[in-house]
Amino acid sequence: MAFGARKRRSGDLDIDIDLVPIMNMFLVLIPFLLMSSSFMSLKAINTSVPVSSEAAQQSVAPPKKSPVKIKAMIELNVNGISLVAEADELNPEALQKMALTLKKRGKAYPLEQLSQHLASIKQQYPLSDTVVLMPAAKVTYKDIVKAMDAARSLGQLPLFKHVVLASKAG
Amino acid sequence: MKSMINQREDFVPPTLQITSMMDMFTIILFFLLFSFSDKPDEIQLEKSLSLPSSSAKIDYNNAIQLMLSTEKIILDGKIVATIRDNKIQGVDINAPEKSALYQTLVKEMERLKTLQKSKNIGIEADQNIKKDQPHILLFCDEELPYEVIQNTVEITAAAGFSNFQLMVMEQ
Question: Does the interface predicted TM-score (ipTM) exceed 0.90?
Answer without folding.
Answer: no
